[in-house]
Amino acid sequence: PTHFAEPGLTVALHVQIQFADQKQEFNKRPSKIGRRSLSRSISQSSTDSYSSAASYTDSSDDETSPRDKQQKNSKGNGDFCIKNIKQADFGRREIEIAEQEMPALMALRKRAQGEKPLAGAKVVGCTHITAQTAVLMETLSALGAQCRWAACNIYSTQNEVAAALAEGGFSVFAWKGESEDDFWWCIDRCVNVEGWQPNMRINCIMLSKAGKLCVPAMNVNDSVTKQKFDNLYCCRESILDGLKRTTDVMFGGKQVVVCGYGEVGKGCCAALKAMGSIVYVTEIDPICALQACMDGFRLVKLNEVIRQVDIVITCTGNKNVVVREYLDRMKNGCIVCNMGHSNTEIDVASLRTPELTWERVRSQVDHVIWPDGKRVVLLAEGRLLNLSCSTVPTFVLSITATTQALALIELYNAPEGRYKQDVYLLPKKMDEYVASLHLPTFDAHLTELTDEQAKYLGLNKNGPFKPNYYR
Amino acid sequence: PTHFAEPGLTVALHVQIQFADQKQEFNKRPSKIGRRSLSRSISQSSTDSYSSAASYTDSSDDETSPRDKQQKNSKGNGDFCIKNIKQADFGRREIEIAEQEMPALMALRKRAQGEKPLAGAKVVGCTHITAQTAVLMETLSALGAQCRWAACNIYSTQNEVAAALAEGGFSVFAWKGESEDDFWWCIDRCVNVEGWQPNMRINCIMLSKAGKLCVPAMNVNDSVTKQKFDNLYCCRESILDGLKRTTDVMFGGKQVVVCGYGEVGKGCCAALKAMGSIVYVTEIDPICALQACMDGFRLVKLNEVIRQVDIVITCTGNKNVVVREYLDRMKNGCIVCNMGHSNTEIDVASLRTPELTWERVRSQVDHVIWPDGKRVVLLAEGRLLNLSCSTVPTFVLSITATTQALALIELYNAPEGRYKQDVYLLPKKMDEYVASLHLPTFDAHLTELTDEQAKYLGLNKNGPFKPNYYR
Amino acid sequence: PTHFAEPGLTVALHVQIQFADQKQEFNKRPSKIGRRSLSRSISQSSTDSYSSAASYTDSSDDETSPRDKQQKNSKGNGDFCIKNIKQADFGRREIEIAEQEMPALMALRKRAQGEKPLAGAKVVGCTHITAQTAVLMETLSALGAQCRWAACNIYSTQNEVAAALAEGGFSVFAWKGESEDDFWWCIDRCVNVEGWQPNMRINCIMLSKAGKLCVPAMNVNDSVTKQKFDNLYCCRESILDGLKRTTDVMFGGKQVVVCGYGEVGKGCCAALKAMGSIVYVTEIDPICALQACMDGFRLVKLNEVIRQVDIVITCTGNKNVVVREYLDRMKNGCIVCNMGHSNTEIDVASLRTPELTWERVRSQVDHVIWPDGKRVVLLAEGRLLNLSCSTVPTFVLSITATTQALALIELYNAPEGRYKQDVYLLPKKMDEYVASLHLPTFDAHLTELTDEQAKYLGLNKNGPFKPNYYR
Amino acid sequence: PTHFAEPGLTVALHVQIQFADQKQEFNKRPSKIGRRSLSRSISQSSTDSYSSAASYTDSSDDETSPRDKQQKNSKGNGDFCIKNIKQADFGRREIEIAEQEMPALMALRKRAQGEKPLAGAKVVGCTHITAQTAVLMETLSALGAQCRWAACNIYSTQNEVAAALAEGGFSVFAWKGESEDDFWWCIDRCVNVEGWQPNMRINCIMLSKAGKLCVPAMNVNDSVTKQKFDNLYCCRESILDGLKRTTDVMFGGKQVVVCGYGEVGKGCCAALKAMGSIVYVTEIDPICALQACMDGFRLVKLNEVIRQVDIVITCTGNKNVVVREYLDRMKNGCIVCNMGHSNTEIDVASLRTPELTWERVRSQVDHVIWPDGKRVVLLAEGRLLNLSCSTVPTFVLSITATTQALALIELYNAPEGRYKQDVYLLPKKMDEYVASLHLPTFDAHLTELTDEQAKYLGLNKNGPFKPNYYR
């Protein structure tokens, strides 16, 4: 299961409706008529509020719906629908800043630009529309592709970035604060355009008369590089950031229980231990449990420590890990949050009972108050803390975007027949290539095998260096 | 030198004008007439913008100056001047939340309340006016003191807290966004009141016909507990928080140079090392330098690494540590910030030259742009990062406030003659007492000496346990 | 490639000659006549001196070869060949102490004893003969197996343990300080016994008229649990232990380069970083390289730092990583050692030239002296440091031994046809079972899935909890 | 209290009998006649077995007492008494190796040699006689001093080093394995020599008709540099080394309680936490207790965790910290050791009762066995683990020796009257100088203050940089 609940980090050769995350079943959406009745099936990630570091546009704009506006960019092109084209300059600066932290995409532009490996590609995308996405789109464009884009989340669009993209000639259909009807309208406008048949997609939710199209697709999400960065390295930082921004809690001396010791749990535990917290771990898998022991964490059942801990963090991918029974026994001021998957881990629904009072004390922070005055501090209403309350480092997004771009190139240029109608893992060698493109950021110098060494190890000097299963 | 640039963490037995931080010379302010001409002598801390986690009042209020309003609390008392008394309920909740993280003051209320050790004390205070300050004021009141208060900083007042204090009967004169003239007016109103002669003060800047009154005072700032918390433990967290909130930088793999390896530098280095940064240290003192080596940091001169580092952090207490010459040689995107003392460490003035462009990209974040396009990211214009861009944990404020309260009790109740007209360090035993009051927060259980052990060590069973010089 | 160079951590259903480590080709050994001429093919591990924590027998014994002695145990049984049966009591105590640190095997005895799952099994083994091996052998015996054993290494036998085993009725053929001829004689005596046909083996090197017998075998070495413990967790401790015992070097402030950032390299780097060393990493694989960056290590080529480092550690599994060119450029006193695989990583042969002087300063420590007086400190002559100069924690050996015992039970009891003539990985579920047997050591409490959770995750409540490829 | 129980790290201007550690009262020893009756007052450190890394001489030598031998060096000088002058070459190599790790003394030789600042000084010393001591002695000699030396410990002398010193013309009276009578005989021979009146001493235990001579002395032990290195940095490494060498215990996952959180405790806790142990701390001082909390350790009373921990480490300087009551409640296999001061912390005497069996399993390791079979593993019989079971890094000894040399120079050259008949702390500036002499070892580059900065800080550009009380 992907950690960031983006709706399917899959790139596909042709428009298709299949999703990496099979729990979502958007492909069953039949027709425009039935749309409203399906509204409750919108994925969590589509409605998660998304912490955008730079949102300058909240209050200054008028209240007219973008759907009711007629806008054109400076070249007279009007094939887009965004909040306000006048914010383009401001968005351009955000994109330029992002470019500096996405050196791998910039390198890809340089290396692959001459040959235009995506010439003729018609890509539709449905992702968060941010400065980082813009760098990806402009890279795909530089490689020869035509792009149309919609947002995967009704809150996450950076309006000024959308404006810069529209000004640059991209057909973008997205704004911050879309209604659910807007959401589907944008996807329709993005995909269904006269005389333009997409032949590649990135995560696009869309209608199709033909139903599920069976084409090759590549699961970008399970690449080693992405996994380690999204989970271990990213969470190591975002757990601290998310907790600080929401609660200003001091970590030193705090007792914390982390539920789950997979990559996400490992990242959270390492960070909190380093900050002077006393960390307990719960696990169901004895192998991960033994790793927790060897890393210096007491392995407990939740009920053994629930009365004494200051912070509870879920990282399991499981459901109902923190249930009402545990919430009832927490001490006053205990902070509860979710770093795992979707919003199932904490049984938030069980807190919606008459005897408990909810008090919104800050954005993303609720105090749930028991009759005796005890307060439990619930973050992001149990949704993903790192998505809701911290920012994802551009560097991590850079890895994802580079992997997506390479996967598109691979699929688009593969000899016919190499990829069947299936979902493929990124070839190990491309995974290694993505990593190598990011090493210059750290002024890191890779050693090359000598001929003799390569022969001894039975490896090609250019990799792949590890078996596919290696993590 | 105190790390947080509060104007003098001294409590004094009688109104006086002396300051712990001798570089400030407010005591020379002669009269109301000369006030405006002295405006440039306002201390850094008085004008630092102060990151208050909860500021709900920015936009909703009217624009009338509080000085022009007539407000009364629900009991008809009008001896205060604040933004809006109607925010009292909201402020009360903030205070109640703060109380939960300041258990030592609450314990002090309980332990000392019966005897009212401050009965008869008339305290004037001049500090940041926040929920935490309110807990201190209400503790002093519970111990028998009468309190009047003004703000030490024109930006830092939490208006709703001031309202709650006014509603509770405290004479508070402060609001967020005071002008400099307002600032002095508030202090005047706080101190000069008919028929009420203050006999104790906390950090108060005020007029006196008698000039510098020579009374006993206690330097709260150099207590071991406060030092360690303000510097080592607090900075360990706030360096990460401050950098993340302003720049969203990913720490992993970043090269960082930390100038100075005192307590602040030690905290910054430990935190960044734990987050996967590669940290270099500069030092002038060979003993601290050797400690840096033993802690695993390469000790360099700044010019050896200035071209390669991603982040520069000053923690020296010195001036002109980062000068234009170094700024010229930094690489594109390098982040520069100050965790040390006041605003002297980075020579910001040297960046105010015509060929450099300044661009404010977020609050507290400037891009300084060289003619070739290189950008240096300057945080808080070189002022203290942790004061400007992160929040100080309530727990640390709790230690300060408890120490202040105990120092007032000690001074007020000492037999005549024990304290001469001088500045005293907090007695070791009281320092230990403050620490002991904070142990229950961590569910920490102290071991007691047996009679035999106390005799063996030559110690009193109740402490003090260490010599005064012990750090 | 296995990290500890034991000759093949494979357990097999029937006597066979195949080895996990295919580079060894003992199976080609044709006959007793040709034995001496094959002497140089004896594996590294067979001649490595092995640091045995407790060797009490060095000087007290007579010089008679065990092959020339006639010994019987107290029950009159003489089917063994060891140093001195009189040391049995002393060895028994060593075994009892080891039992306390191998709770999983003891638990296995209890759980599986009733059913005797190895009844009828005839096991020959060829491993280090230590107290820990004895606990394994006595466990197999308790489960119903008959065992005969020889040593896999001419130095590593604990004579007193061999005595205790012989006294207990096991047919053991091993002593410390065997000659190469002794080594093969012992294996012959172990395997070729009238009227006893082995049907299972653990790592046994032996003669067979039929050549390579094709039977199912299980690769114990690549189980997750064993991998993590042998490599990451074990090396994290043994790198410090090995360096200290040989050189007494202080780690704080030392500059160290670690070649290779796989599991072994990760363990070494983490330990040395924690002890205050400044660590550089070299890598050929960009993915591991990026991990090193994110963990806070500078990624360099060896030639960039070779002049400045105090310690060089190889963990690559590659050959000629440290060649003469680098050795020539090291600074005076530089320590060089190998934590990787076999003895190929450091080109020790290149140091056997006339202008260099070798000086043995301690056991396992040579000073190689250049004409200008420069000394390089070479540990264990380039062989594995952790095998030669530190001890392997009993806990790690416990995991290996438990895995071996479980693999034997699985193979012996599997329905015919489940395992073909191939080498199998330990089933994930058994890997998890080994881990679970070791959790009580840490007083670790595993959480159980609820029915609802198991259903949600699509897992059996008893595992396996992860896919086979999960590491 | 000094951490390493050396008998007084004081250097004195004139022969005197005063000791830094006042609990020892050797100065009361009246006459040769009374010597034997005073034998039990020999300090702990004089009889501690001392782990000498290189002892090549154990078995090869004859059994004749050195006192009965007539030996002369190659120049015909016989004013020494050692084991065997023939070992001089071997000892010389040990000294040369030590020189490489004591660069500060070598630098001192170079810097101060021209002026011979100790010309005329007659120094008697009584310390461990090791290669490191030899480097100190030869440095003092190079600076102009005449030296005579005896051992402070009956086990710690490296015979080959003593031989090299004797061959070099030093009057050394020491060998490994002295009897108590030998010990005092050596000191007599060292001090009482016709026509040679010592005027300086390092830690010398000696007879004096005049009783306690009152002369200036310098307490080398409390210098910042020495304190930090002996305690924090040294113990961080030696706790791991001492535990591994004696017990081969795996640290990962072990539960450990550390009694006392001073510098030694901090070092032990940091090391064990880094190795994956779960660490609990006990403290009597609330300030140190709060530090433990902030560093992420649970603060407990010993009785709360004594049943569950795997290792108990005392670092208090106190007595009877681990008493029989706690030993009775430890679990089977629990390891108990002392890193604190002298041998009072663990009540070993209480284990000498009939129902308990003692079993010596290795050098320095006893199993104490309860009637029910429970074993407690007692290390070094409760004496200092790091002195008994690990080696002290040469670098730490280098700091001590350099400080001693500088203190002698300071005392010897001070204008009359600067130092009264008292014990002085090393001046801060010299402490800083010792540190600066050790920086080149780490290739560490100190930053120099500019004139402007020095003025701003009110400091001399060459230091001292910190107040005397700064730690």
UniProtKB/TrEMBL annotation, chains A, B, C, D:
Domain S-adenosyl-L-homocysteine hydrolase NAD binding: 231-392
Cofactor requirements of the protein: NAD(+)
Region described as Disordered: 24-80
Family matches, as InterPro entries: Adenosylhomocyst_ase-like_sf, Adenosylhomocysteinase-like, Ado_hCys_hydrolase_NAD-bd, NAD(P)-bd_dom_sf, S-Ado-L-homoCys_hydrolase_CS
GO cellular component: cytosol
Keyword annotations: NAD, One-carbon metabolism
Official protein name in the record: Putative adenosylhomocysteinase 3
Naturally occurring in which organism (per UniProt): Echeneis naucrates (Live sharksucker)
Source species taxonomy: Eukaryota, Metazoa, Chordata, Craniata, Vertebrata
